[in-house]
User: Fold this.
Amino acid sequence: MGHRIYNFAAGPAMLPEPVLEQLQAELRDCRGSGMSAMELPHRGALFKQIAVEAESDLRALLAVPDDYAVLFLHGGASSHFAAIPMNLAAGRSVAYVNGGYWSTKAIAAARAYAHVDIAADAAASDYRDIVPAAEWNVPADAVYVHYTANETIGGVEQPDTPAVEDVPLVSDMTSTLLSRPLEVGRYGLIYAGAQKNIGPAGLTVVIVRRDLLGEPMPATPPTFDYRRQDEAHSILNTPPTWAWYVAGLVFKWIAAEGGLAAMEAAARRKSALLYGAIDASDFYINRIAPRARSLTNVPFQLAEPALETEFLLAAADAGLKHLEGHRSVGGLRASFYNAMPEAGVAALVDFMRDFEQRHG
Ligand SMILES: *Cc1c(COP(=O)(O)O)cnc(C)c1O
Assistant:
């Protein structure tokens, strides 16, 4: 048996240990079929059962209202940066909040399909703080207003659902969905690439209020046509069957652990431990405005940046891996979604104290 490390990567991220064990146990024979879940025909009875179960488990976790479609699609969050304006905006005006790296990508993609107004931009804080919703300037004719709930690279998070009336909220929740309870009914559309907090890469979850789905733009590929995919139960073509299956096991694991309230409580304990250690020391620095600090992605620097390489090497030796910051910003970053055990963050904090003692 191989060993396991604590993987602090922003994504693909750790999966829950019990899920991995179940996958291993049934890799060659899923539910008595004599086939791996990877080998199941996507239109067969067993995959259908798996697909329906995963959707209803996700609906239960998030208490998704009945007038919302829950779609299991291809493409990653990045493809849906384009698919969302294709489906919802069709050449009309949309509003975007620029909160950092991923917002910028979403805005650039949307400009190809719709007129984009910038409702708010966190540039004044160098993207180290949020712009509170009260300061957003959303034009009344916007079809929707889009924001990135958690900027995974910057480590900046909108802590609550922004209070926006009249214009539907659209949110990239790739790195925060399932980290806490959520009032889905306050959103027009929520989407998330799976590889952070849901399951394997290759799957993208889209939750959308059905009355927002009009005629998509003419050139929209059918596989990215949300209305057609809703009618086809997300099986217009071969869906990412394995990722869908694994996501279903993750939903059951979350429910067994106590649901989203339990996920939030654990995330708060883990982040309090790490931010507490950083704030208690002059050796480590986190520059994010306290009200906007991410619950799951913590960028930090060493007061002595020359020690970074040694820090990363020594951490890896201790089984604490992928603590390097995103290539666009450098520095260090610890990401710890639902599947990261609290013991992993505790081990990181112990390591940081020890490293500081040796070098501080
Ligand atoms: C990781 C990430 C993305 C990119 O996701 P892909 O599935 O790789 O396209 C987009 N938005 C946020 C907030 C992310 O964390």
In short: Residues 273 and 346 are 7 Å apart (CA to CA). The first strand starts at residue 6 and ends at 7. The two ends are 38 Å apart (CA to CA). Residues 11, 76-78, 102, 148, 152, 172, 174-175, 193, 196 surround pyridoxal-5'-phosphate (CB under 6 Å).
